[in-house]
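Teaching note: in complex prediction, the entire set of molecules is handled at once rather than each chain in isolation. The prompt given to students was simply: 'Predict the structure of this complex.' The entities are:
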Amino acid sequence: MSVILSVENLNVSYGSIHAVKGISFDVNEGEIVTLIGANGAGKSTTLNTISGLLRSKNGSVTFMGENLGRVPPHKIVSRGMALVPEGRRVFLQMTVQENLEMGAYTKGSAGIPADLEKVYGQFPRLKERRRQVAGTLSGGEQQMLAMGRALMSHPRLLMLDEPSMGLAPILVEQIFEIIRKLHKAGSTILLVEQNAQMALSIADRGYVLETGKIVTTGPSGELLASPAIKKAYLGG
Amino acid sequence: MEKLKRMAPSTRSSFITYGMVIVAYAVMEALLSGGLLKSSLKGLLVPICAYVVMAVSLNLTVGIMGELSLGHAGFMSVGAFTAVIAAAALESTVTSGPVRLAVSMAIGGVAAGLVSLIVVVPVLRLQGDYLAIVTLAFGEIIKNIINCVYVGLDGEGFHFGMKDAASLGLAADGKMLLQGPMGAVGIQKLSSFTAGFLLILLTLAVALNFIHSRAGRAVMALRDNRIAAESVGISPSRYKMMAFVTSAVLAGLAGGLYAMNFSSILAKKFDFNTSILILVFVVLGGMGNIRGSVIAAAALTVLPELLRDFSDYRMLVYAIVLILVMLFTNNPACKTVFARFKLGSPAKKEAV
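The expected output is the structure of the full assembly:
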C-alpha cells in the first residue's frame, strides 16, 4: 500500500492560540483513517489546513508526492483531494443537481452526465430530489449532497469533516453505511469525527487528538478495546 | 408559444426581459413620434436608460456577487468625464455623431474598468460592512479628485492641471473641457434614446449571459457559501474580480451616455446620494433579479417627475411608495401571487 497523504509536524495557530501542535500522520491508498477527539482538539483545523483553507505555521503536507504548502485551496481540488466541509455547506439556493454540477467544476463538462448517474446510484435519495432547492433538504440529505458533490471531482482522497454532526442517530447510521460502501468501492477516506465509536467501527486506523496533539494511534480495533480510550471517548 | 415553453426556464426568462425592453422602447418611440410625450418626460428618456444600466450593473455586484457596494456612482463618474473628454478630442477625427458617442462611451467604460482594477484589491480582501465603507470612500475620492482637475484641449493636445484654468496655458483657440468644481462644460449632446436603448440591450446581454455562464455560477456559489465553493475548486479572487470589473465597465458606459445628454455636468452629480439611489433600484427590483432592476430603475426615475403636481409632497409620496412596495413584496400572500408569475423561480422548484 502506498502512502497517499502524509502530514509531518504540522503546526497551526489562530493568532496567539496554538491549535495544532506538531502532529504527524499518514493515509495509505484504499484506507479509511479517522481523526477522533473532543471539541477543540484540533481535528477540523487539521483538515482545513490540509485542504488549504488555513495556513500552517510550519510542518508539511505531502499529497501524492507533492508538497501542498502554498497551493491555494481551489487548486488542491484539481490535485485530487476533496473536502466535505463541516456543517455540510451546500449551496442552499441551487438545486440538488446544480450543487452536484458545481462539484465537477474543475473537470470538463464532458463526463458530468456519467458522473451524475454514478452519484445518483450511490445516493438514490438525491436522485428523487434532484430538482429540489438544496435549502429545502433535511440535514441528512444535505450531508449526502455535500458528499456527492465532493465525489463529482473524482477525488483520490475524500476528506469528511464531522459527517454525523447534528444528525439523528438513524441518519448517522445511514451516512456511515454510505462511507463504508464508498470505501468498499475503493475510495481513500480521511474521516474527522467526534463520534469516536462510529468512526472507529468503520475505520482501518485511528489517531486520537487531544488539545492539538496526537496522544494515541493504532488500528481501530485496538483503539476501540483500549481502556483509556473507552473511558475518555466512548463513555466507559 | 410552444417554442417558448420548450426553452430552458432561464433562457425563457431572459427572452421575456429583452422583449419587455424592446416593447417599452417601441411604445416610447411611437409616443415620441406622435408628439404625445410631455417635454419633461422626454428629457428623462436618456437618464432612464442610464439608470437602468446602472441598476443592472450594480445588481451584478450586490445581487450576484452578494457584496454591498456604495460607490457605484464613482464608476459612472469616471466613465462620464472620460467619455466627455474623449468625445471632445475626437470631434475632428470622427465626424459621425453616433459613432463618436459609441467610441467615447467605450473609452469611458474602459477607464471605469481600469479604475475598478484598483478598487478590486480591497474588494477581494474585505467583506460585508467593511467593503461597503471602502466603496463609499472610493466614490467620495473620485468625486473630490474630479472636482479639482482642469483639462483643456488645444492644437498641441491635452493640458492637465490641478490648480486653475489659467495655469494650463492653453493656446488662444484652446477649449476648456473640465473646469474643476465647475465640471465639464460645452458638451455636445450626442446621446439619444436609441443609443440608450441599445446600451440597455448590450448590458442585458452581458449581465444575463454572465449570470448563466460557468463564471456566473461560480460567483453565485461564492456568494452562497465561500468555503463550499473553495472546496469544489473555485478561485474566489478570479471570479469576484470578473464580476466587479464587469459591473464597473457597464457603469462607465452608462456614465458616458448620461453625461453626453447634457451640455454641462458636475462631479457633484455622482455623489453618495446617486450611489444610494441606484442601490434602491436594485433592492426594490430584487437582488439578483435583473428584470426587477430594469423595472425599478425606470419606474423610480419617472415617479418623481409624475409627482411634480404634488410639488411639496413629492418626496413624501416617493418614500411612501417605496415603503408600500417593500411591504407588499414581502407579504406572504402577495409572494405566492408573484411566485406564480415568476418563471423558473425557486418557488416552483420546491416540488415536495
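Point out the following to students. Chain B touches chain A through 21 residues (CB under 8 Å). The CA atoms of residues 59 and 282 of chain B lie 6 Å apart.
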